[in-house]
Specification:
Two copies of one chain form a homodimer. Chain A is α/β, with parallel strands linked by helices. Chain A has 13 helices and eleven strands. The two termini of chain A are 23 Å apart. The interface between A and B is large, with 62 and 62 residues.
Chain lengths: 379, 379
């Protein structure tokens, strides 16, 4: 199996692009990544998109994006795994290079949520749940997350302790050029905001935004950023039948496999980008990744441990809450941010001496997760 | 790069399953494939589905199908490439084994079209076209195919000659247990059927059906059916800007690459399963695959060349027209049928002495195509 490296990164700001098409967002991020990599020798393309089928009536994105790049002809594959689409597409792109099928892969994600009413985003999100069992009841992703949040509050923490996940994300986003909401937010503002789904406050939820992120993958050479672990795992779709709904088994399994591939332990991780679509899910992700003990992630987030000079810097550009969460693109923003950190190209967000970083994405209520681990090498 | 073999095949009849869920169709085909392979050691899953997002409001199919198999936990990836989804998912599954990431992959496709009104199928299909340019005009896939059909009639053939593609498919389907329409159809019946989109008659169009097909892939050992070539390619989405709209460039490119990987020429192919969603597209696919000269595929189909004892047996279980075309599952039916032929397990449909077979799928107006070539080995 060939070693795989990240040769280029391209991000566009997460915001509302009312006058741009889905494929034009993809193309902008992709061309940035290609320029960054200094190559035009791409021989295959992967595209992550979650809800184009619903928001733009657009499927067959593979052909669409190669066309929009002016490169019709290239092999192209669309990968969809709910909000984990970006992380899973990255995993597939890694395999394409590792297998020898491709020498230079462009992997990008794009999503455009501004085109639809906010309630349509809620509908799109719950399409990730089993329609004939869970979605059928009328529950939303916020509602499902609220059940976990309630249980977590009963067992482990106070509301403001969980809410600190969002506060920290906003702290880290300040100055980030690609973040949607790069401003500080106090815990009081979060706790005083209206209830989205009790006990989740509005300011504990990621927002609605458009965005695209892309990377170029090649066989690893002498130095750079290598993909040392990449894994995907699933869990049963219904929260009701999980042994412990506060344990994101798919995250735990994917992490275990990725750690094993990378030959590292949670303690070796220098920074993490985790899936905080709602504060509680960021907290539970930190625990399932083994970066905090069960029921203990709020302690980590409350101190300075997740800051850039802390023990385990987390969501160093703001996370889903503050950088933004353009669904299928999100997983690629996460991996790209890790790559920038390991290159030492994270500017004011730089984690000093970062060597190993992790990105974790989840779809549905963590019914599917991707964990990708990157390492700086040869420097 | 490791060699990859097909260890098991599972098909369910294409028909209307009013009382079954999408995931239950997948599970039935998958369990058949696993039984056929004699293994329960699957370590990852690929699922092809085109229109669940529209027809069942269901995305995140990866998690859904591992759950329905009673195997939550397994890595799972949904691949979508319009009506080529099955062929592209197979390509990805091949890479998973070739790369060493997986030792035993289950790849399956499922689609359920009966749930929606027939006009909704038309809407679903045109989602494969660029929404902001082509679909925007109100054209349908039948309409786009009709333009090619008209041009082909102007240049190369009579209506009944193109229509023979459907007649031959029906001939081959007789006795096929998984075919939706396993009966003979005369050319008169085809030519007397109402116009779907002039000059395409209703009986030249594939129908609406539900189905699921699955296969198990493993590293190749001593004998069996090997995947010797697997490629995906795209083309510009709009027919209007193609140099010659009668040349399916994506099919030609994918075929060229797959032939090269397999070390074979079109003349070496013992049987082909091609994408005849409309008769004209089957004809143009035969030409783009190099199995007929440009403008000459109707001559092939008119004689006995595409019969099971002909020069290039084609659509040996009926093709999309007669076996059925459950969208995202179709590409996997095609590859599975090739595998059955190479195993000598095709019963009354057996192509004598078949050693090398090809399956070709396309999405949109061949804006994306997959070509997979299989070869019998060690016997």
């Amino acid at each position: 199996m060939r070693r795989v490296a990240v040769a280029g990164v391209g991000l566009i700001p997460v915001k509302e692009y009312w006058d741009r098409s889905l494929q034009s967002l993809f193309a902008e991020a992709a061309l940035k990544a290609l320029k960054d990599a200094g190559t035009d020798k791409v021989d295959s393309v992967y595209v992550a998109n979650m809800s184009g089928s619903f928001m733009q009536d657009q499927i067959n994105m593979g052909a669409l994006v190669t066309d929009s790049l002016g490169r019709p002809g290239l092999p192209a594959v669309r990968v969809e795994a709910g909000a984990a689409s970006g992380g899973v597409a990255f995993h597939e792109a890694v395999k394409a290079v590792a297998s020898g099928y491709s020498e230079c892969v462009l992997v990008g994600g794009a999503e455009k949520m501004s085109d639809v009413l906010p309630e349509a985003a809620t509908t799109a999100l719950v399409m990730s749940e089993e329609q004939e069992y869970t979605a059928y009841t009328g529950v939303t992703q916020a509602g499902l997350s609220a059940m976990l949040h309630r249980l977590y509050l009963d067992l482990y923490a106070e509301p403001a302790q969980v809410g600190m996940m969002a506060v920290k994300g906003h702290d880290h986003s300040v100055g980030c050029k690609h973040a949607q909401y790069p401003f500080r937010m106090s815990i009081d503002r979060a706790m005083d905001s209206p209830m989205e789904a009790d006990p989740i406050h509005m300011m504990e939820c990621s927002g609605v935004g458009d965005g695209a992120a892309a990377m170029v993958l090649v066989p690893a050479a002498d130095s750079g950023v290598e993909v040392v672990g990449s894994a995907v795992a699933t869990d049963c779709c219904s929260l009701a039948i999980r042994r412990d709904p506060l344990i994101f088994e798919s995250v735990r399994r994917a992490a275990e496999k990725a750690y094993s591939m990378a030959g590292v332990k949670p303690d070796d991780i220098d920074l993490a980008e985790v899936h905080d679509d709602f504060t509680i899910n960021g907290i539970l992700s930190l625990e399932a990744l083994g970066l905090a003990g069960w029921g203990e992630a709020t302690k980590l987030v409350a101190g300075n441990a997740t800051d850039k000079d802390g023990k385990i810097p987390t969501n160093t550009f703001g996370g889903l809450k503050a950088r933004g969460h353009p669904l299928g693109a999100t997983g690629l923003y996460q991996v790209a941010e890790v790559a920038l950190q390991l290159r030492g190209a994270a500017g004011d967000h730089q984690v000093p001496g970062a060597e190993v970083g992790l990105a974790q994405s989840m779809g549905g209520m963590a019914s599917v997760s991707a964990v990708n681990i990157l390492r700086r090498f040869g420097v």
